[in-house]
Amino acid sequence: MILLIGGGGAVLPAAAPANPAAALLDIRDFGAVGDGTTINTPAIQAAIDACSERRAGGVLIAGGRFVTGTITLKSYVTLRLAAGAELLGSTDISDYATDTHANMYKGEPHMNRCLIFARSAEHIGIEGGGVIDGRGLPANFPNQGDRAKNRPMLIRFLECTSIRLRSVDLGVAVLPGHRR
User: Distance between CA 132 and CA 87 in Å, rounded?
Assistant: First the structure.
């Protein structure tokens, strides 16, 4: 599993809203298109930002295959992937943010980007019956012409507390050699 937690963070149950169904914000209401090709990063991030401002609830990913670059989870937000829904990592490295903590591992300086990122967030989560697929197969990364041979990680949480991961399929991780 590709989950990095720094700064003494712990994986703990996240606080749930009193009425989870009423508190869900559907990414399609923010313009996301689940066609498997449209880059939905701005729409998904707008839903996350709106949910965080409310300080409770979840962001619903349902009814399609949604492609995205880096999205940043914020405090009091749970990504909820409905059964059958897929959150797909973009296969274009330029869709991934470069400010997601350049945590370099020995021999792996190319992994300084990620699909789902959080820093100093609390009460965050990812759950549901859907799939997060980083599409990290060797055919997708590194991109042709990318001298640095960048390859994004799937999830990176730094200095976060009260993290909940439940019943979500992490699909094809964005790592070489991983097989489904």
Answer: 5
